[in-house]
Amino acid sequence: MPRISPVQTALALLAGSLALIVVHSLGRFAFTPLLPHFLNDGLLTLEQGARLATWNYVGYLFGALSALILHAPERQRVALPVALCLNALITLAQGFTDSYVLLWALRLLNGLTNGLVFVLAPALVLEWLNRHQQARLSGLVYLGFAFGLLVSNVLANALDEQVQGAQRWWPMAALALPLAVISALLLARLETAPQKAQHSTSAVRSPLFDRASTPLFIAYAGAGLGYILPMTFLPTLAQQQLPAGDPLVGSIWYWTALACMGGILLWNYLSSRWGDRSTLCATYAVQAVGAVAPLVWPGSLGISLCALLVGSSFVGSVFLTQRLARNLQPHQGPRLSAALIALYGVAQLLGPWLAELWLSLGGTLTQSFALGAGALLWAWFFSWLTPSQPSQELIKCPT
């Protein structure tokens, strides 16, 4: 395999990062800093916002699962750029309607295209880096998502006086559309090797859930449910708990994004010192404190701790789980990724739905964060039960 230049590597990482900015930061999580504005403008109620978030996660789940059918190179070459550009167009379309029914359909489609791209784009970059012995750099792709969170906060608040209601999606779309085109062109340059046959009959038939991996799967369900409540409703909670004009009301998503960027580098570094399992347990403990902070210390302190602790740790939980799972079952390949994606997607789906249910019963948004903290403690406990190395049987399994 010919050596590649640092510029080629950087362009490959940029291609994946831009795709995540478009679909995950501007298309999906921009809804979080925009929601307080939508509530003030009368475009949505809090219950409707929670419902839209739930259906967006439904779409994300089905999009991620559809990637299993479309991951073959000949299908991916068509599906990935189409889904990427369609996601940006959906972001634009949301800026031209105040119909709740149409917004519901658009958020569902946004989730579908987001899930597809979120699986295929990083996987394509990882495969390309693997071919060129640069796989250790693959985690840097997620810095694009973290940077995109920062950008989405700026765009959500910078034109507060100039746009109203659904028009608040316009700045997101103005950036998403050109980035989608650039990303699609860069991703098309990444050539991948032909798919190889399955490793072995014994590996394919080995169980996905065994004594080593089952606790990790159970923990990951808690991770999806635990993080999604703060990452969906934190700016809205800041608006509810803090007095009007408090600087944190408009900047809390900004601090969350900065924490996310630093956290990706921090947890990747700590895992080389502590090991993946111990570091994963630490990410859940940190997130649990952050999720419960607004309930224990309502006001500026609790809101700030939630932003910094959850924001800095949730992406670390994702890539550490993926890395540990592959270490425990290196022979599983696509089956393992599919199961983790589906489980995380279902757990994320439950979070906003449970929040909506709690609100309908007379509860408060602050109280619903206790559910997230409990789910993260669940994730910590089952991660602690997960071994850090595969069993001898799996080590001997032919690959």
Automatic annotation (TrEMBL):
Gene3D superfamilies from the UniProt entry: MFS general substrate transporter like domains (1.20.1250.20)
Superkingdom assignment: Bacteria
Transmembrane regions: 54-71, 78-96, 102-125, 137-156, 168-188, 208-229, 252-270, 277-296, 302-324, 336-355, 367-386
One GO term describing the cellular component: plasma membrane
Ranges where the Major facilitator superfamily (MFS) profile domain occurs: 5-391
Keywords: Membrane, Transmembrane, Transmembrane helix
An MF annotation (GO) of this entry: transmembrane transporter activity
PROSITE patterns in UniProt: MFS
Entries under InterPro entries matching the protein: MFS_4, MFS_dom, MFS_trans_sf
PANTHER family hit by this protein: PTHR23537, SUGAR TRANSPORTER (PTHR23537:SF1)
Protein name: Putative MFS family arabinose efflux permease
